[in-house]
Amino acid sequence: MNLSDLYFTTNLDDNIARMQNFFAHDNTFICRVVQGSGSPALRAALFFFDGMVNSASINESLIRPISLWRGAPMPMEAVIEEVLQIDDCPFDPGMDELLSAFLYGDTVVLVDGDSRPAVVNTKGFPHRGPDEPDNEKVLRGPREGFTEAFMTNLALIRRRLRTPQLRFEFTELGTVSHTTVSLCYLDDIVDRTVLHEVQRRLKGVRLDAVLDANYLNEIIRDNRSSPFPTAGFTERPDIVAAKLLEGRIALVVDGTPVVLTVPHVLQETIQTNDDYYISYLYANLTRWLRVLGFVLTLTLPAVYVALLTWHQEMIPTRLLFSIAASRQGVPFPTFTEAAGTLLVFEILKEAGARTPDTIGQALSIVGGLVLGQAAVEARFVSAPMVIVIAFSGVTALIVPKLRTATLVYRFFLLVCAAVLGLYGVLLGLGLILAHVCHLTSFGVPYLVNILSAEKHSHNDVVLRFPWFAMKPDRRFLAGGDR
Amino acid sequence: MKRVCAALLCLPLCLSLCSCRWHDAGDLSAVTAGAVSRTETGYALTAELALPDADRNVPDSKTVTGTAGSLAQAIDAAGAGRDAQLYWSHARILLLDASMLRGGLREPVGALNRSSEIRPSVRLCAASGTKADKLFECESIHGDPPGFALGDSLELAVRESRVPDMPLFRVLDRIESEGIDPVLPSVAEENGQAVLRGAALISGDRLCGRLNEEQSAALSLLLHAGETGVLYDGGARRQLTRLRTEIDAEMNNHTPVFTVTLRADAACESDGQARRTAEVLQQRCLDVIQILQRTGCDALGFGRMWMQKDAAGCQANADAWRSAPVTMRTEIHCTPSAEGGSR
Fold this sequence. Notes:
The structure holds 2 protein chains of 2 kinds. Chain A is of the alpha+beta class. Chain A has 16 helices and 11 strands. In chain A, a hairpin with a 5-residue loop joins β5 and β6 (179-186). Chain B has 10 helices and 13 strands. In chain B, strands 1, 2, 3, 4, 5, 6, 7, 8 and 9 form a 9-stranded mixed β-sheet that branches. A 4-stranded mixed β-sheet of chain B has the order 10-11-12-13. The longest helix of chain B is centred in the C-terminal third of the chain and has 25 residues, at 271-295. Chain B is globular, with a radius of gyration of 23 Å.
């Protein structure tokens, strides 16, 4: 049955038959006919989906008032005004809008003698509470996280920014899923150019379904092939609030706890929530540790291979003896050994991430400890190589936002090191730097605050200034940074 | 784009010219020390190789020798027929046999310096009382290869200004320069161990005399081989820091008069100790200077200094520095220290 076959007439029985016919193969579809106690009695039909609605709300707001109504039948607008006890009730919407709301947990109400339906907000599908996201835990600070419930997520944002300047612009994306996406921003500080660019790109989205924020990210972001993220992800409302205060725009997608924030620049990849919730001294120290960790995880395997294959004179003599001794019996060249060990490490990491927690722990023990030890004893790899790769792998975990870049560029630099030694590593790093300089996020340079000459723009880049020294205008876009 | 491609292609070419090559660390035989001696037909070069062993903390060692008409060929001959290539970059010490010192150093040191295998920073030493390659058969205290252990000892001795610091490039520079001569630390065999014993004095490019340990230490202080030095006075040990040496030449009727001033800070308990240190130091330095003048080893560069002051006079009688009067001054500044005394 086509959508064009679905229409309503003044005959309620015909309408019921048509709806039942339209949703014939959907066992969650429920039609409830209610009759008032007057004479002649008011007769109404309620359509809703089991599991999507709040039953108590339907009973109290719809069934009970109609069944107790002693008056005569009346048109729908009068029923809404006099009988139904509801707050949000679009009257006679178009068929597309009706179906969209109906499929999303609203109840369609039809009365006998009127072809115009009412759609009552009775959404009541189950969703989890705003627990702290596993990926973004903090030592100290708010513990709430977004959920899959769209309106709950918006409420979590609004609760933190009680200003009339906060805007939520809804748009529907996905020709099948009809997913609601909200564009959130602070109207007084948002960069209009960026806002219009985001709106323009969202209009260009052509997808069947938008099941997660990443569906949009891959379509609307700049430099789509770059491993550096040019759009930010978070599951924390406090982070979204902070980013909105900096003039950014958030995209809340229904059905996912992940919120997209744009523009996204390099400095954000090394910032964490804890930077702002704990002592600025400790925060700055850990921020620099993260920078160091990123540099180490990227370059350590490459530098090790370069030193061992091209620049042995740079290794202290005793260390060289020790490494040479440990490499005795290893059948592979250093580069192959490094690439293979890195690959195995990534496989183990992926396996650990895809397995349930209980098995994951056992897997990491077996993979990390037992396999590593066995591989060294069997002379598949040398012990220093296991140390280097393990250290490189561990340091990668402290900059999770650059996971893809780390994975890609670690191998890239490894090849550079194998081909050209330390010259290659430097050349590779230069190319990566050139690529980063070339990146933009919605028209904003990726290194916007790092290279900016504006003094206040450095408040939260290299160092996180203490709050008493932070300039009141923290908007990275609203100033002259661009 | 063409330029970028050309630049990228040039890079491996540049690398090949600067002797960078791909080879795994395990495929190399690391040379820890070398010994050079003269033969009837040319040179013999002995390399001490470290053989790392996974089951031991210290590597084993063995020696290989190559003989050829030139040093470059001898280096190649030493590594010929081996599975792993000889890797000289970790050699820290090169022992010169007495036959080398007597036969002239200019040509072999020049050849070593030109070799792409051997680093110019390798330190040269003179073998004393034994053949240079025999020193690699000695034992070392910690079980390290003897040449490698000798490198450690030399490093420490140079840091404490007990022996002069004479890397290959400096020796060549002194040999090629007018008015300054090299001095090489001396290595001898004692009780089955290779130990540093004084220094060998070179005049021009040939051996002209030797210094004992005390004299070698005094000369090293004058050469301020390290920023710090140690002076032993009987049982007392004086730590000297911030060593500075000034050599001044004055002309008196076309005859040079040299003034050598040595300044240092010494950890002393009293000014009396500082005065005593200065006196001892002054006497030892004077003794050494006299030996240098007597043997003709211009280690302090008197000749060069004179040449700058009076080129014509120097040309006329280049050896006049050997009979020139030398005034030695020592200025020791006492820095109070609990560990500076004789305790």
